[in-house]
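Subject: design request, 79 residues
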């Protein structure tokens, strides 16, 4: 996972909206949606449940973010 992935997923989860997250991130909503969709396609799982409003992060999405947080802590303590 790169920092953009983490930042984008975290912001969409926080805002519960691609349009609000894109504004906060300073990128276009279609670019953000496409980026997340490509990640989901690459992994073969959904990070967000788009069938409800507001959107919600899936259990896989939560686990993905938690593991990234653990890696950040491990890397920072190893330095």
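Subject: RE: design request

Done. Sequence follows.
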């Amino acid at each position: 996972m790169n920092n953009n992935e983490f930042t984008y997923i975290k912001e969409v989860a926080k805002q519960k909206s691609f349009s609000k997250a894109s504004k906060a991130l300073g990128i276009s909503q279609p670019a953000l949606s496409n980026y997340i969709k490509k990640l989901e396609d690459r992994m073969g799982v959904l990070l967000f449940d788009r069938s409800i409003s507001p959107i919600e992060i899936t259990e896989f999405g939560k686990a993905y973010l938690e593991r990234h947080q653990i890696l950040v802590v491990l890397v920072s303590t190893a330095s």
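The chain has four helices and two strands.
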